[in-house]
Amino acid sequence: MLGSETAMLERAAAGNEAALDDLLRPLLKPAYHLAFMMLRDQGAAEDAVQEAALKSWRKLSKLRDGTDPRPWFLGFVANECRNMRRSRWRSVIRLGDRDDIAAPDQKSAGDPDLRSALASLPDSDRVIVLLHFYLDMSVEEIGIVVKSRPAAVRSRLYRAVKRLRPRLDVEEAIHG
Amino acid sequence: MADRAFGNEIRRLVDGQVPAAPWLEDRVMAAVLKDAADRNARRFDGPGPRLLIALAAAIIAVLAVAVLVGTRLAYHPTLAPGSKPSPSRDAAVLRYQALINSDARPMANSGGGWVCRSNQQCIALANQTRAEAEVLLHDVESTPAPTSLVPAAAQLRTAAQQYIAGLDAYIAAEQDPNTNYLAPTGPIPTNLDIAVATVACWPGVPDVAGGEQSIGNGSNGYACTVQPPSK
User: Fold this and answer.
1) Are A76 and A96 in the same domain?
2) What is the spatial distance between Cα A37 and Cα A35, in angstroms, rounded to a whole number?
3) CATH number at residue A159
4) Is the minimum CB–CB distance between B114 and chain A shorter than 8 Å?
5) How high does pLDDT run on average in chain A?
6) Domain of A146, in residue numbers
7) 20 to 30 Å CA-CA from B100: which of A102, B39, B106, B168?
8) Are A151 and A90 in a shared domain?
């Protein structure tokens, strides 16, 4: 299995269309969802995913054997989102934009208090919450994405969940 | 099963907000494959003009450094390579880096507080950032930079001036009562961020290609690439 993965990675790194498709395509949808929740803007989220895909394939030769490509790739996505958020004026406009033009069905999606609390989390905490609870990633995998130790990830996740749901049994909520 | 229930809540929330983008996968794959094809084509074409230009630039840079080092040694004939303390341990450099870092930190905070919903709010936010940038610029202009950081300080000064000018334009646009607060686009502080990182990373260099990364406390910044000490 490892041998075939290695061969696939090598082919993908060489620009083989089928190998690149096998490797990247399944990662794009979760990446887009993560990017949208970070940026609140469809165009920006699409751009972030595309830029992350380009950067990750250029560095594909550095992906070590046996490394799960999903957290590795989502790390590029998270980084792109941070870069875009860093251009704060864009995010000022986009955030205001989102609240004003959100469609009624989107506004009613989910608990509004939770939505608002999630939106008010710092980027670095929100990405961890989304990776854990939306993409079902373990704290170890999240550590790869955010370049942090699992213990630090767990601690930040704990704090973030406490802010989102003060009455929730946080220990029970955090898995893996 | 608080875990599952809370996870389901988050999933419902996200799925309810993210608009569908059925074209995205094809768009991204097309971009990646085009990039791959371009790179492969360049690889087979041999060194292109860009590579030659980069090579020439590298040779010129090496020659320039050699001339500078030679000139410096001529003025300080007793200075033997390796006898000088590492620049990173230079107290003046450390003090200057601490000053710039301290000035830049408020502006690097990208926590969840960037929302404004009216011209007045946007102006207030811009003014606050402008004041922070002014503090940085004032310190850059009034504090002599250590010799090794003079070029980086000049870069920082220019970037701060440009950023403040951009903020002024943004504020002026927001002050127009006929302007929707969402319409004006404020300046993007990328050059300022890189200039700050150039000072903060010295004697290393900021990893600009790697983009900004989380540096804790909700802040972002460039990672420093430490250059190996010359022998």
Assistant:
1) yes
2) 5
3) 1.10.10.10
4) yes
5) 79
6) 110-176
7) B168
8) no
Q: ipTM value, please give it.
A: 0.79
- Residue A135 carries which DSSP code? S
Q: Which of A35, A68, A101 delimits the end of a domain?
A: A101
One-letter identity of residue B199: V
Query: In chain B, where are the structural domains located?
Result: 51-84, 86-225
231 residues of chain B, pLDDT tens digit each: 456 788 888 888 888 889 998 889 998 999 888 888 887 776 655 555 666 677 778 888 877 776 666 555 444 433 333 333 344 568 888 889 888 888 887 776 543 335 566 778 778 888 888 888 899 999 999 999 999 899 999 999 999 999 899 889 888 888 887 777 667 777 777 788 888 888 888 888 887 766 555 444 444 566 677 664 444
Inter-chain contact A96–B24, Cβ cutoff 8 Å? no
- B3 to chain A, any CB pair closer than 8 A? The answer is yes
Of B31 and A91, the one with more pLDDT? B31
Which among A15, A105, A118 has the least Cβ separation from residue B39?
Answer: A15
Nearest 5°: the CA angle A21, A24, A30 is: 135
CB A122 to CB B218 under 8 A?
A: yes
Rounded-to-integer distance, Cα B34 and Cα B38, Å: 6
Specify the DSSP class assigned to residue B161: H
Whether B127 and chain A come into contact, CB under 8 Å, resolves to no
Q: Taking the complete model, does pTM exceed 0.90, yes or no?
A: no
Shared domain for A114 and A97, answered yes or no, is no
Q: List the CATH number of the domain containing A29.
A: 1.10.1740.10
User: Residue by residue, what is the 3-state secondary structure of A104-134?
Assistant: HHHHCCCCHHHHHHHHHCCHHHHHHHHHHHH
pLDDT in tens, A114-145: 888 888 888 889 999 999 999 989 999 999 89
Domain count, chain A: 2
**B chain contacts of residue A111, beta-carbon cutoff 8 Å:** 9, 13
For residue A86, the chain B residues in CB contact (below 8 A) are: 110, 189-190, 193, 212, 220
Chain B: give the shortest CA distance to residue A2, in Å.
24
Closest CA to B40 of A35, A107, A4, A12: A12
Residue A171 touches chain B, beta carbons under 8 Å:
no
Contact between chains at B212 and A110 (C-beta distance less than 8 A): no
- Of A68, A101, A134, which closes a domain? A101
